[in-house]
Amino acid sequence: MVARINTVAFQGIDVVDVDVQVQIAPGLPAFAVVGLPDKAVGESRERVRGALNALGLALPPKRITVNLAPADLAKEGSHFDLPIALGLLAAMDVLPAEELAGFAALGELALDGRISPVSGVLPAAIHAHGHERGLVCPAACGGEAAWVKGLEVLAAPSLMELVNHFRGAQVIAAPEPRIEPDAPALLDLADIKGQETAKRALEIAAAGGHNLLMVGPPGAGKSMLASRLPGLLPPLDAAEALEVSMIHSLAGTLSDGALLRRRPFRDPHHSASLPALIGGGPRARPGEVSLAHLGVLFLDELPEFAGIR
């Protein structure tokens, strides 16, 4: 028998379906994960084993094979722990496979069975809704998944509660949408005396969404002026908040799974590497340019940045 459950992989900001297939077959005891897993995915064997042990379950002394399809797509990240564990539980007849088929799952497992937060839950939730599936995710990330209207979200704090829910022993309450709490007031342009021409340039840039290059000697007030630009910008509307929050969710910078309401202000140091600025790297993540989407990217000491000479 092969048990199957859906999850996702991330390619930049794109979400790709992954079919987790679990087979328990006669043979020498072994636990293999195939399908181009990275180191974090390969180590999920021990996290899953520990989480099941916390539930009082032991893996059967048989050959266990987990295939992450499509097999030619590189799989990265610890969020494959939960779908692998659920697939194993279905293959062991602990959970009903037909109910799991209607969900996509992602989450990292602790050795005591708790489900730890992972990045990318918001775009995964939108993807699951588009494919008419529910979403199983960590409780700490339920607030961002709950923003997807009409999506069934199971935000469980532990694997035990998830098992009890599918077996009908308890019901996991639907999470409430979360939004970023009120933050201290932004810096006000009215604090600056003089600099009327520079302040007028800031107002025009804010009103039209223009780029702005400030040139002047040290101490002229360039950084002081730039730090007050976010205070001139309107708050994010609903569509913009969702768009910006998706990027920050992939980067793992959403606080407590709460959607952003303020436009981002990113101020990278001039020693930042090129991948840190534009994104990418061995495991592609958004860079400072992407994280400043619909907000402000402030490049202080612009000529000092790598590649800008």
3D architecture notes:
- By secondary structure, the chain is of the alpha/beta class.
- It has two domains: 2-166, Ribosomal Protein S5, domain 2 (2-Layer Sandwich), CATH 3.30.230; 189-304, P-loop containing nucleotide triphosphate hydrolases (Rossmann fold).
- It is 30% helix and 17% strand.
- It contains twelve helices and eleven strands.
- It has helices spanning 39-42, 44-54, 81-91, 97-100, 121-130, 142-145, 159-166, 196-208, 222-226, 238-251, 274-278, 288-291; strands spanning 2-11, 14-25, 30-34, 63-69, 103-105, 108-109, 115-116, 134-138, 153-156, 265-266, 296-297.
- The protein has a four-stranded mixed β-sheet.
- Strand 6 (108-109) and strand 7 (115-116) form a beta hairpin.
- Helix 2 crosses helix 3 (81-91).
- The longest helix has 14 residues, at 238-251.
Task: Describe what is shown at a glance.
It contains 12 helices and 11 strands. With 309 residues, the chain is of the alpha/beta class. Helix 2 (44-54) crosses helix 3.
